[in-house]
Amino acid sequence: MKQLKNLQYIFVFLIILLVLVLVRSFNPNLFKQDPGKAVDAAQNNSNSITLAQLKALRTKYLVINLGNGDKFDSIKMKNSLNIPIENLLDKANLTIFKESKDEIILYSSDESTTAKAWVILNQLGFKKLFILAPEENPEAFIYIFQPDTTARLENDSI
Amino acid sequence: MAFLPFNTTRSFRLKPDELLSKSVSDDIYISVDQVARFINNEDTTFQLIDVRDAGQFKACNIPGSINIPFNDFSDPKWEIYLNQKGLKNIYYGNGEQTASYAWTISTGLNYGNNFIMTGGLNEWYKTIMLSQFEGENITPRENALFENRFNARKTFTQINSLPDSLKTHYFNAKHLQAAKLDGGCE
């Protein structure tokens, strides 16, 4: 009788575990990817595509313009779809991402918007997702710092 | 937990809708003038995080910042710096793109209060290092603004003009301070 009771506990535990696995596996409202992969892709620029590369693409692609309102982008691209970042995760828009078999290209005049949208979608598990790279590298330092060799610390805080 | 189909500790903890609503808020951006004020006031509630590579960081950086290169960002060793209760993290790169990646990842992982310095180091240089007052009359507000910029510029130049050995000493002291705040040791 005692053994049967122990077996019941194990059985209940296994059912709870199974429910947890199912909830996490099928819940669309959860992130499931490793952020390290997003870091790697962003670092080696494998998540971005230039306009020239885009034009040379032989496969089909879907361009998403993330701009809206006062931040609306002046760039106009043929066949692009306007999904303001605020509406990125609306059910209808997620369906578009899910059903698209083509490469998805995100673009915005604001590189911060595109970067944030790309990470969110990447971590939701969307593949074939790229950022349209601006013509000039947004991460290039355009100034040169000239050290002042006569400078001394006024307060010795070190 | 090992039975779960993925590593739960490494995926984002925030729900996608929560992360998106934080992402679209203008409150996550901090201007270079605000950062200059934090430096001048030696505000210890803010932590500046430079996400550029070590070489660029060594060449010049905003005084008081720590370097967490983005290519190494997912390493769990940085969690003690990124996830400190009561500290606000301000990310910056040369532009806004890398800082935005870092912001989204750290916010997704539910690490503290995160912000992005608007325009990155290029904007800092343009506004703080190179701005000049032009005109005959200056209002008290403009005067305060330029004094703030001038003082931050002076600190930036002083710290970044130090010999490498002193800079290393300074940054090691910063790292040690962060470790101590977290209750650890180095």
Task: Set down the secondary structure blueprint.
The complex is a heterodimer of chains A (158) and B (186).
Chain A: H1 2-26, H2 35-43, E1 48-49, H3 51-56, E2 61-65, E3 80-82, H4 91-99, E4 103-107, H5 111-123, E5 129-132
Parallel strand pairs in A: 1-5, 2-3, 2-4, 4-5
Chain B: H1 16-23, E1 29-30, H2 32-40, E2 46-50, H3 54-59, E3 66-67, H4 79-82, E4 88-92, H5 97-108, E5 113-117, H6 120-129, H7 140-160, H8 164-181
Parallel strand pairs in B: 1-5, 2-3, 2-4, 4-5
Helix pairs in contact in B: 2-7
**Total of helices of chain A:** 5
Q: Strands of the biggest beta sheet of chain A: in what spatial order?
A: 1-5-4-2-3
Radius of gyration of chain B: 18 Å
Provide the residue-averaged pLDDT of chain B. 88
Question: What's the helix-strand series of chain A?
Answer: HHEHEEHEHE
At the first level of CATH, the class of chain B is: Alpha Beta
CATH topology of chain B: Oxidized Rhodanese, domain 1
Please name the CATH architecture of the domain at 35-132 in chain A.
3-Layer(aba) Sandwich
Largest sheet of chain A: 5 strands, parallel
Notes on the structure:
The complex is a heterodimer of chains A (158) and B (186). Chain A has 158 residues and is an alpha/beta fold. Chain A has a domain at 35-132: Rhodanese-like domain (Oxidized Rhodanese, domain 1). Chain A contains 5 helices and 5 strands, in the order ααβαββαβαβ. A 5-stranded parallel β-sheet of chain A has the order 1-5-4-2-3. The N and C termini of chain A lie far apart (72 Å). The model of chain A has no long low-confidence stretch (mean pLDDT 85). Chain B is an alpha/beta fold. Chain B has helices at 16-23, 32-40, 54-59, 79-82, 97-108, 120-129, 140-160, 164-181, and strands spanning 29-30, 46-50, 66-67, 88-92, 113-117. In chain B, strands 1-5-4-2-3 form a 5-stranded parallel β-sheet. In chain B, α5 (97-108) links the parallel β4 and β5 (113-117). In chain B, α2 (32-40) crosses α7 (140-160). The longest helix of chain B has 21 residues, at 140-160. The mean pLDDT of chain B is 88.
